[in-house]
Amino acid sequence: MEVVLRTKAKQADLAIEFDSAGTESYHIGDPPDPRSVRHAQTRGYDLSAVRARQVHASDFHEFDLILAADEINLRELRRRCPQELHPRLRLFLDDIALPDPYYGESDGFEKVLDLVEKQAVLLLSRWSLPN
Predict the structure, then answer these.
(1) pLDDT by residue (tens digit) across 8-40?
(2) Alpha-carbon separation of residue 82 from 39, 53, 60, 63 (angstroms)
(3) Rounded CA gap, 98 and 112, in Å?
(4) In this structure, are residues 98 and 69 in contact, taking their beta carbons and an 8 Å threshold?
(5) Long-range Cβ contacts of 95-99 (<8 Å, 24+ apart)
(6) What is the pLDDT of residues 49-95, one digit of tens each?
(7) I want to staple 98 with a disulfide (CB 3.0 to 4.6 A). Which of 32, 39, 48, 69 is the partner?
(8) What is the pTM of this model?
(9) How far is CA 87 from the centre of its chain?
(10) If DSSP states are collapsed to H, E and C, what string results for the chain?
(11) How far is Cα 88 from Cα 83, in angstroms, rounded to an integer?
């Protein structure tokens, strides 16, 4: 999500800071799944600099919005986040979970990229509207 959002924001000339992190610690420092890298690359997204990190308590204060891929991660974020900052937490796809392609076939990565690109355009159009 991070690289797609960053790329689309840059194309739209929007200065928005993006980062990504997981709720678990077991992949800290690892690059993305090679299949993700390969599929993203075919669409012009460079994931080579991306490394996994775990959500920090400071993230809840530093970022205006924290988007979760699914309900499991959203619940974990809510558990860790100060109550007053809960309005900053949402699902990336608004009301449905982003599918996890990890255990599936190659086309699952393409489906996820389709969903992420579509939602990125929608989110950036919302964020670029005057308040």
Answers:
(1) 999 999 999 999 999 999 899 999 999 999 999
(2) 36, 20, 8, 13
(3) 7
(4) yes
(5) 97/69, 97/70, 97/71, 98/1, 98/69, 98/70
(6) 999 999 999 999 999 999 999 999 999 999 999 999 999 999 999 99
(7) 69
(8) 0.92
(9) 17
(10) CHHHHHHHHHHCCCCCCCCCCECCCCCCCCCCCHHHHHHHHHCCCCCCCCCCCECCCCHHHHCCCEEECCHHHHHHHHHHCCHHHHHHEEECEECECCCCCCCCCHHHHHHHHHHHHHHHHHHHHHHCCCC
(11) 10
Q: How far apart are CA 72 and CA 77, in angstroms?
A: 9
In the chain, the amino acid numbered 7 is T
Q: Which residues contact 43 (CB under 8 A, 6 or more apart)?
A: 113, 117
What domains can you pick out in the chain, each with its CATH number? 2-118 (3.40.50.2300)
**Closest Cα partner for 25 from 58, 57, 60, 54?**
54
